[in-house]
Design brief:
Lipocalin; mainly beta; 2 domains; 1 helix; 32 strands
């Protein structure tokens, strides 16, 4: 019952509209950000924004005013193609993929290059909830209509599409010439990158909302049936299944040098050795980790995980799962449904239900460095 109430609250939160003025409006979406060089690119219901990574200073915003974006709403994490100088983002409300041309640096405002709109005959019929994946000449992005769209990066035209029987809530994984895609229809699919033709599929015990992760020669996924699967990427054979889960596995796991870390929506954290499938440790927090993906320090020694309910970031010692004290929580942390991000110096979060859209912490000490927008009392 607790899980269902929390999930209902998350979904209702995602459907709420903004309140307040443009500078201090509460963010109530499933937001996402990336860090490119010294710029944070953050997507939320209001705008797509570029912020100085060190100071939080606003460098640019698109649309320029929040009044012009009522029919857009950015929920999906943006993607950046450095080779082509393209920034890609997807609108939730208008069901449109946007590609922006970046001229030299993301510190300068990008210009719109092309769109893949919903009103096209082959356009999306549902909402874009998650970000996409750049692979070769294609941008691959899943939609709430159950379709994976493969768009040509040069002009946004549709190269191919693949339809599943339920919503797609995460970005696909691409390795070599294969696309690995999960769906709430209880399946993991392997598709040919060049034309989207199916290679194999695996049925799971529950819906799969996370992206697959490649570690130690295998694909790893968890489902809403409380299970974790290890799968051969060539044949689709399930080589191992963990059946002792306690709740839904939603957040995409993180892996590093022989270890992989899963979380569930009841706040359990599980650490497995990828060579042997051995459960090294299991710990729990008094919260809930929904779709927000954690992150590891560069050396893999520490694991950060976002707690949706309390809006806190927890830090764990990856050797034993022991929780480590980290910083002082903000007075009003909001909630954390999105992925954590880092540039190996700072940790970035996108809280919801508070005026601040981005909060940035010192990665080592946990001290709050800056917030955007700046709180009124700090101006």
């Amino acid at each position: 019952m607790r899980r269902w109430l929390l999930l209902l609250g998350l979904i209702l939160t995602a459907l709420l509209t903004l309140t307040g003025c443009s500078g201090g409006a509460r963010q109530e979406s499933w937001p996402g950000l990336i860090v490119v060089d010294d710029v944070v690119v953050a997507a939320d219901v209001n705008q797509l924004r570029g912020l100085d990574a060190a100071t939080g200073k606003l460098l640019w915003a698109w649309p320029e005013t929040t009044k012009s974006n009522a029919a857009i709403g950015f929920y999906a994490t943006p993607a950046y193609d450095a080779d082509r100088g393209l920034l890609l983002a997807a609108g939730f409300k208008d069901r449109t993929v946007y590609a922006f041309r970046v001229d030299g640096s993301l510190r300068e405002p990008p210009t719109l290059a092309w769109t893949f709109p919903a009103d096209k005959e082959d356009g999306a019929k549902g909402q874009y909830v998650a970000g996409g994946t750049i692979a070769g000449d294609l941008f691959l992005i899943g939609n709430g209509d159950g379709t994976l769209y493969a768009l040509r990066l040069d002009d946004g035209s549709l190269a191919w599409s693949f339809h599943t029987d339920d919503r797609i809530w995460n970005a696909p994984l691409v390795r070599d010439d294969t696309v690995y895609l999960t769906s709430l229809d209880h399946h993991l699919y392997a598709l040919a990158l060049d034309d989207g033709s199916p290679k194999w599929q695996v049925e799971t015990a529950g819906a799969v909302a996370m992206a697959p992760v490649y570690a130690d020669g295998s694909l790893w996924i968890g489902d809403f049936g409380y299970r974790i699967y290890r799968i051969d990427p060539q044949s689709g054979e399930v080589t191992w299944t963990f059946t002792e889960g306690k709740d839904w596995f939603w957040a995409t796991p993180v892996a590093h040098e022989g270890m992989i870390y899963f979380t569930d929506v009841s706040g359990n954290v599980w650490a497995f050795a990828t060579a042997t499938n051995e459960l090294r440790w299991h710990t729990a927090v008094n919260g809930a980790i929904f779709r927000g993906r954690g992150l590891l320090t560069p050396d893999g020694a520490k694991l950060f995980e976002p707690d949706y309910v309390h809006g806190l970031v927890y830090l764990f010692d990856t050797r034993n799962g022991q929780q480590i004290a980290w910083g002082t929580p903000p007075a009003n942390p909001g909630r954390l449904p999105g992925d954590l991000a880092s540039d190996d110096e700072r940790l970035y979060t996108m809280p919801i239900l508070i005026p601040q859209h981005v909060q940035t912490f010192d990665l080592e000490r946990g001290e709050l460095i800056w917030e955007y927008p700046v709180p009124e009392e700090a101006k």
